[in-house]
Write a structure and sequence with these properties.
The protein is α+β, with helices and mostly antiparallel strands. The chain contains 31 helices and 22 strands. It binds S-adenosylmethionine. S-adenosylmethionine binds next to α25.
Length: 777
């Protein structure tokens, strides 16, 4: 993507997620903001087989649909026998043990019922029949999905048994299918008409795509200069303290959401990228164009939806010129005027179970030690690993019924963790740490989401412009965009742009910041008031500090501090560019507050962290974070949070708040840090953040119990919200209660870390900082 925004993701979540934990499949959707096609595809996801984790089976975006390591699924594989001795086979089946020929080693009962020798090449009809599907080529969407899933399984199985899939024969079958289709078409004139129309539209779309690609190539050259500038800034930021996981967030324009799977009313999309958006929606649905032709006539609901889409496309073509008034109206829309309709994924849960069990292969066996050894020797087979992940997740979801006798949950989990490391590329420690946050199925969704970039978003700088004015200017430059959601009046999601978003005149003039939506949240939670004194303790490169400045309408004072001198440069540059006149930039170790200056009305501690919430932007996190890093980080975070608390004036007339946030999802860096602060500072309590999205913070985790009000904290997850992973906690600092233990109403002049270990770590860090400064100066 380079610096050019090419974002084909669905819009960020704009619906408050119900405060409940549980799989994404149970989250509510907001119909109003979800394009119809996306909604449709979501429903399909919810009704997919249990055995195929949603995110893996049905990637939610084009990017996810083509993961580096994804299995290419041929919907109509044909089979050719090859030398089985050469094929590694670690996916072991009970049946395979008894009969040597691959034909008896089918994975599912259905697959088993269809054995194939060298001479027996099954037609698609045979396969369909074996699956109980109609032979006339007219499949409902669900049936088609099922067929595809079975085909994938069959393909993988056959591969593991030494078969190869021959593309030539595949083409023959396609021809056969086409002939069948033609027959069907003759029988039904009406259908034929429809299909002709479809064909024309598809051709148009294909042409459009080709033109787009050409344009892209041309534009790439033109953009090079701007890209270089921006890259410079970003590199600068990345060459930073290991503890910082977020510089990328702000510079890399991140944002979000797949989530909620909600979509944007077609009326809400603006700009010349409308067609592209349609294409985006089509990419995300699992249908390809051919599949649309195969839509089952009897499936009235889906046909209706398709008709609607066709109408929309026609409308879009007609409405090439954007009505400025409409745009202005849209950008004036008040958050409250949204009719939020929700849709429960839950409704499909039953189907999901049923279908999952149908697809379950209860003969899956964990590899033995010998199998594992053999697998180690053989070339890495990611398809095999991927398939085993799905099998194990499925078994863990119904362990009593599906587990192999004599095998424990731990056996399966151990294998699964190894496979996660192999397939997604995490180190052992991090794979386990992240895995433990979720159910096995949801963990896979999380890992999968980390393979997909989040949407590009910008924050409008209200010190310089209004959102609708900026939107209009960018639209005129060929940018396709829309508001991020009703909960933010300053966020815009960029879908497509013919100019580099980080180098437009508006960007250079400070009209906006490239900023992930998640990183709006701590500022919204802090809610600084005009004329207050606010400290942003770890602020470079200034995404949040400049937002705080804007929220305070350039009044009062924001102390934007960061311990990293190199990052101070980009912080200062952003402060100037964004026209923030109420910001003082300073360069201290945060732990020197409040000694340097205290008595703030509010303090934001957007803490240095591991960055496990932004792995899609910085995949190096997968391998470069060790147990030791987490220990050190957690210590630093605990020290910083105490300093943040002690820098707030409990007597502030308007404030007295601290917001602690990280772009990490681990409990060690979040709930545990807050719990530590509550223990050390009894004058502090957790209060609501005022953020409408996200899940509750954990009240307990793996045997540890946290403060009851920890649920008021917000947790944002990439797979659930299509936003960067984030944690936000708001604390109210009260006057210290009088008593033998505390004695004083005032915050201590110098924060005391009563832990000898803390002191040692601080000392080491100070020395490192001093060394770094020496190198820089
Ligand atoms: C997550 S980033 C902050 C991003 C910033 N809030 C923004 O919105 O642009 C964490 C920052 O903490 C800084 N940092 C690391 N250790 C620090 C310390 N001991 N005191 C102050 N800042 C520190 C890093 O240099 C990094 O810029």
């Amino acid at each position: 993507m380079g610096r050019r925004a090419k974002n084909k993701q669905p819009a960020p979540a704009d619906l408050p997620e119900p405060r409940q934990t549980g799989g994404a499949a149970k989250q509510k959707l907001q119909k109003r903001n979800v394009p119809q096609e996306d909604r449709k595809s979501l429903k399909r996801k919810a009704s997919g087989p249990v055995s195929l984790p949603k995110a893996v089976e049905e990637p939610k975006s084009k990017a996810a649909a083509k993961p580096k390591k994804a299995v290419k699924i041929d919907p109509k594989p044909t089979i050719k026998h090859v030398d089985t001795a050469k094929a590694p086979s670690t996916l072991k089946k009970t049946k395979a043990k008894t009969a040597a020929p691959a034909k008896d080693s089918g994975k599912s009962a259905k697959a088993k019922s269809h054995s194939h020798s060298d001479d027996e090449i099954p037609s698609v009809d045979d396969v369909l029949a074996s699956l109980g599907l109609p032979k006339d080529g007219k499949l409902s969407e669900r049936q088609r999905k099922k067929a595809l899933a079975e085909a994938e399984r069959l393909e993988l199985l056959l591969k593991s048994q030494g078969y190869s899939l021959d593309e030539d024969e595949d083409e023959d079958e396609e021809e056969e299918d086409e002939e069948d289709e033609e027959d069907d078409e003759e029988e039904d004139d009406e259908e034929e008409d429809d299909e002709e129309e479809d064909d024309e539209e598809e051709d148009d779309e294909e042409d459009d795509d080709e033109e787009e690609e050409d344009d892209d190539e041309e534009d790439d050259d033109e953009e090079e200069e701007g890209d270089e500038d921006e890259d410079e800034e970003i590199d600068d930021d990345r060459a930073l303290d290991f503890v910082d996981g977020e510089e990328i967030e702000d510079e890399d324009y991140a944002i979000i959401n797949e989530e909620d799977d909600e979509e944007i009313d077609s009326d809400e999309a603006y700009g010349p990228g409308e067609e592209e958006k349609e294409a985006r929606v089509e990419d995300e649905s699992l249908d390809d164009e051919d599949d649309e032709e195969d839509e089952d006539e009897e499936d009235e609901e889906e046909d209706d939806e398709e008709d609607d889409e066709e109408d929309d496309e026609e409308d879009d073509e007609e409405d090439e010129e954007i009505d400025e008034e409409d745009i202005n109206d849209e950008f004036d829309v008040d958050a409250n005027d949204d009719d939020l309709e929700t849709d429960e994924f839950g409704a499909d849960d039953e189907d999901l179970e049923e279908e999952g069990h149908e697809a379950v292969d209860d003969s899956f066996l964990l590899p033995t030690v010998e199998d594992e050894e053999r697998e180690k020797q053989a070339p890495l087979d990611l398809q095999l690993v991927h398939m085993r992940i799905q099998e194990i997740v499925n078994i863990l979801s119904d362990f009593q019924r599906l587990a192999q006798p004599g095998r424990s949950r731990a056996d399966y989990t151990e294998r699964l963790l190894k496979d996660i490391q192999t397939y997604y590329g995490y180190n052992e420690f991090l794979a386990e740490m992240l895995f433990n946050l979720f159910s096995p199925a949801e963990a896979i969704e999380f890992f999968e989401a980390n393979e997909t970039p989040r949407p590009v978003t910008i924050r409008v700088n209200t010190l310089r412009t209004r959102r609708r004015d900026l939107a209009q200017k960018l639209i005129n430059r060929g940018v396709s965009l829309e508001p991020v959601g009703p909960w933010s009046k300053v966020g815009l999601q960029i879908f497509e742009s013919s100019v580099p978003i980080g180098a437009t005149p508006e960007y250079l003039a400070g009209d906006y910041m490239l900023q992930a939506v998640s990183s709006f949240l701590p500022c919204i939670a802090l809610a600084p008031q005009p004329n207050e004194r606010v400290l942003d303790m770890a602020s470079a490169p200034g995404g949040k500090a400049t937002y705080l400045s804007a929220l305070m309408q350039n009044t009062g004072c924001v102390f934007a501090n960061d311990s990293n001198k190199a990052r101070i440069k980009s912080l200062t540059a952003n402060v100037h560019r964004m026209g923030c006149k109420n910001v003082v930039v300073c360069n201290y170790d945060g732990r020197q507050f409040p000694k340097v200056i205290g008595g703030f009305d509010r303090v934001l501690l957007d803490s240095p962290c591991s960055g496990t919430g932004v792995i899609s932007k910085d995949p190096s996190v997968k391998t470069n974070k060790s147990k030791r890093d987490f220990i050190l980080l957690s210590q630093l975070q605990k020290q910083l949070i105490l300093c943040a608390i002690d820098s707030v004036s409990p007597k502030s007339a308007t404030g007295g708040y601290v917001v602690y946030s990280t772009c990490s999802v681990t409990v060690e860096e979040n709930e545990e840090v807050v719990e530590y602060a509550l223990r050390k500072r009894p004058n502090v309590r957790i209060v609501p953040t005022g953020i409408e999205i996200g899940r509750d913070g954990f009240k307990s985790f793996r045997g540890k119990t946290f403060d009851e009000r920890m649920s008021l904290c917000r947790r944002i997850f990439p797979h659930a919200h299509n936003l960067d992973g984030f944690f936000v906690c708001k604390l109210k600092v009260d006057v210290m209660p009088k008593g033998p233990a505390h004695g004083s109403e005032e915050a201590p002049e110098e924060t005391v870390f009563d832990d000898a270990q803390d002191e040692q770590i601080m000392q080491r860090s100070r020395e490192r900082q001093t060394k770094k400064r020496r190198v820089v100066t």
